[in-house]
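**User:** My hope is that you can spare some time for a protein that puzzles me. I have put the entry right below:
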Amino acid sequence: MAKVRSIGVFCGSRLGERESYQLAAEQVGHAIANAGARLVYGGGDVGLMGISASTAAAQGGPVLGIIPDFLIAREGYLDGVEMRVVDSMSIRKSQLIAESDAFVILPGGTGTLEEIFDVVSRQQLGLHDKPVVFLNSDGFWEPFLTLIQHTVREGFTPQSLADLIILESDPAKAVADLIEQLDAMGDAPAASETAN
């Protein structure tokens, strides 16, 4: 039996100012479920992450939420999906990374940025080779790519890290590209790390 792929979704715990962000979150959840993959996310029932996870669950797709206990009162959680309650934000992030075979990054704020830098830095250090795609809804991630390219020009970041940042505007294609990359990699473990 084929391994069920797990795709980590990093995105905002708020809805953002554009309806296109919400639509993209819904389409990502739909695409992950339709691909037969498990959606792994930060556990809350709010913002873009709540839309993405609830859409996947409504389509019958498996969902794993990982949330620190102190955030439950603020963000809630989805009923009827696998939920893992942990002690801290750092444990949540490490488990999100460990449980995911690939990542799709939607618009988000500082928490999403922290997760991005951790995933991309670990990738650059050779701690994992998990594919990452940034869903560039309405050009949201273009300033981020500009910042990374600036750090390359100023000698603080290798070009190889900037090359890891792939922008895609179509949610279904973003998920399909991740699945295609995972299939090309085969069933070999994608990470040398374990969760905390």
User: Anything to note?
Assistant: The radius of gyration is 16 Å. Residues 188-196 have pLDDT under 50 and may be disordered. The longest helix spans residues 19-34. Residues 114 and 148 are 14 Å apart (CA to CA).
